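[agent] plan:
  1. take the single chain provided in the ticket
  2. run structure prediction with default settings
  3. attach structure tokens to the ticket
  4. add a short note for the reviewer (M.T.)
[agent] executing step 1
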Amino acid sequence: MTSVKIRPIGYRLIVKPETVEEKVGSIYIPDEAKDQKQWKQSKGEVVAMGELAFTTGTPGKEDYIAFPNRPKVGDVVMFREYAGYAWKDEDGTRFATLNDDDVMGVEIADE
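[agent] step 2 finished; step 3 output follows
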């Protein structure tokens, strides 16, 4: 699991997109094409979540609901292709900060 030095707030979460292969068969993928494809990835690991992610209503009030099937840190999620804000940390690791409603599904682990 990756640790990140930023804590998302509210309904946001930080996802580490899946990496792109450098080689497909015997064809080498240039860095520029790899970079473009990297940001288009629509699956990634949740590394941090805001306190209100995947909830609705006001905490402590009767209308507050925390969705029972929400992802947790470590889960792999599917999200909209160009959703959120893409950025790199100081060691070059890529991340995306998303709103919780950009997440469309959670990968089911094989059991």
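[agent] step 4 note for reviewer: The chain has one helix and ten strands.
[agent] ticket updated
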